[in-house]
Amino acid sequence: MTVTWEESGWEQLAPGVGRRRLPGWDCTAGLVVGADAVLAVDAGSSLAEGARLRSEARELTGRRVTHLALTHPHFDHVLGAPAFADAEVYGAVGLDVALAGRGRDELRADAVRWGLDPAEADEAVAALVPPRHAVSGEWTLDLGGGRQALLADIGPGHTAYDLVVLVAGDPEVVFCGDLVEESDEPQAGPDAVPSRWPDALDRLLRLGGEDAVYVPGHGAVVDAAFVRAQRDTLAARFGVSE
């Protein structure tokens, strides 16, 4: 690596695994480095932000990002994706439909409503290409040198298309998308599936286990106890029986 995680403004979570808290909406972007490939997790809220993430990843690794996993179809996680035009892009099954047609109009409107410059929103939405790879169940990416990343479609919950990324190691790291939020209460918009959200978090906990590091879509890194408490809070909030 040409610079350290700290020098680049990234937080190292495990050897070869880190994340960046982006300004504006405190959205998380992740990076997983293997011997042969580099995986980014989410892409930021605009083409400019995506380009910065791509540039920082190259500074950290000396290589380009080869794979991109999108955790769900909200603007602050996907509108930077066109900056990774030469990466293999993955999303939960159905995400390609959510990012096409009327979904693009809703994505653009949501971005502007939350404060993204309309011109930046137009530029990003026009360039957005739906994921090439649809993950149904689980998909293991071999990044080389013994490094694997497991992509798991464990929604619906926060949206109908929630993808998480588990990186084996010591510790194991789980990128949760907005199924888990630390800096504020979990946001349940019109595309959320509240009745299924607690079940999704149960699956998340089974996937990661008690000793994993859980990386929320917004906020500080948390542990299994935090995820379990948030699961119980959501169940009570939405009247979901145990």
In short:
This protein has 242 residues and is α/β, with parallel strands linked by helices. The protein contains eight helices and twelve strands.
Task: Tell me the series of helices and strands, N- to C-terminal.
Answer: HEEEEHEHEHHHEEEEEHEH
Q: What sort of overall outline do the alpha carbons produce when their principal axes are compared?
A: globular
Summed over residues and divided by their number, the pLDDT gives a mean of 95
| N-to-C CA distance | 47 Å
Radius of gyration: 16 Å
How is the main sheet built?
7 strands, mixed
Major sheet strand order? 1-2-3-4-5-6-7
Name the structural class: alpha/beta
Oligomer classification: single chain
The count of β-strands is 12
Percent strand: 15-25%
Low-confidence stretches: none
- Total number of helices: 8
Helix content: 25-40%
InterPro entries: Metallo-B-lactamas (IPR001279), NDM-1-like (IPR050855), RibonucZ/Hydroxyglut_hydro (IPR036866)
Domain Metallo-beta-lactamase: 26-218
Protein name: Glyoxylase-like metal-dependent hydrolase (Beta-lactamase superfamily II)
What does the model show?
With 242 residues, the protein is an alpha/beta fold. 31% of the residues lie in helices and 23% in strands. The chain has 8 helices and 12 strands. The protein has helices at residues 5-8, 47-61, 75-78, 95-98, 102-113, 118-127, 197-208, 224-238; strands spanning 11-14, 17-21, 28-33, 38-41, 67-69, 88-92, 133-135, 138-144, 147-153, 163-167, 173-175, 213-215. Strands 1-2-3-4-5-6-7 form a 7-stranded mixed beta sheet, covered by helices on one side. A hairpin with a 2-residue loop joins strand 8 (138-144) and strand 9 (147-153). The longest helix has 15 residues, at 47-61. The radius of gyration is 16 Å and the shape is globular. The termini are far apart. The model has no long low-confidence stretch (mean pLDDT 95). Residues 26-218 form the Metallo-beta-lactamase domain. InterPro entries: Metallo-B-lactamas (IPR001279), NDM-1-like (IPR050855), RibonucZ/Hydroxyglut_hydro (IPR036866). It comes from Streptomyces thermodiastaticus. This is Glyoxylase-like metal-dependent hydrolase (Beta-lactamase superfamily II). Pfam families: Lactamase_B (PF00753).
